[in-house]
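Dear Dr. H.,

I hope your travels went smoothly. While you were away I took the liberty of generating a structure for the chain from your last submission, since the lab meeting agenda had it listed for discussion. I wanted you to have the full record in hand beforehand rather than looking at slides cold. The sequence, exactly as received, is reproduced here:
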Amino acid sequence: MNYEGNIIRPPSEAQSMIIQVTVGCSHNRCTFCGTYKGYSFRIKDMKTIKADIDEASSWGIPFQRAFLTDGDVLILPTKDLIEIIQYIRKKNPRISRIGVYANTKAILKKSLDELKELRDAGLGIVYQGIESGNIDVLRKIKKGAFPHKQRECAEKIIKAGILLSQTVLLGIGGIEKSREHAIDTGKHLGDMSPDYASALTVMLLPNTQLYREYRAGTFRLPDKFGLLEELRLLIEHMNVHRPCLFTSNHASNYLPIRANFPQERDAVLRVLDRIVRNRDDSVLRPEFMRAL
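The corresponding predicted structure, in token form, is as follows:
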């Protein structure tokens, strides 16, 4: 496989065929992310992409899903993306769903009709990093997208009939913005009501601006119980208006959660209340097991 640089994918795509379509991220300015530092964003040529699809298809694995990397595949011209999706499905008739990462800019560049074309071709799910619902936090981390634009994206993806999975970052507001970040992010997720929502915990990576701010003392990360309090506040204010599978089972998190909202939300809040109140770390993931 002609993989270049760091290849990442959502936990739910662990069994998927992974095809690298772009190298890097078209934004690549977020202060917390070190994944694509040192790489200039580019789209790989179609010949190389199809050669990788041919190789993966020759392994004899009955793939049910495929995932296209890197950070922002949806930025491709619609016709090229459809060509890639159709080629994957031609070579792998069992594949029923293809997923991509997409940032706000890329989603907004696609018309609703284009998204429906992609859905009909086989694009089944879009993963979008929201990080926060607080405008000050989003500005501070240089996300390049504000809440009203993120809501516009969510509405468009859902209307197109494509599954939407959104991720947020616990701790990204630091101690100073912890409460505002948690409440605003919970409300934001409730307003958008994605099919899937995941809370990850920010990890301080040495090659990032956020790490340099941490070393300088201008960014202070909440401790593990502060992060759990953020999670509790987020969930308390997350009033979804359609079914949503909420998870916090990523390796970066202290407490794995998997629950269907809204029906299981109150039960999750009771668990979090008990752990935070009792400062009970016996059920938390040990520090040495946390990772990206």
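Two observations you may find useful: Residues 24 and 120 are 27 Å apart (CA to CA). Residues 178-192 form the longest helix (15 residues).

With kind regards,
E. W.
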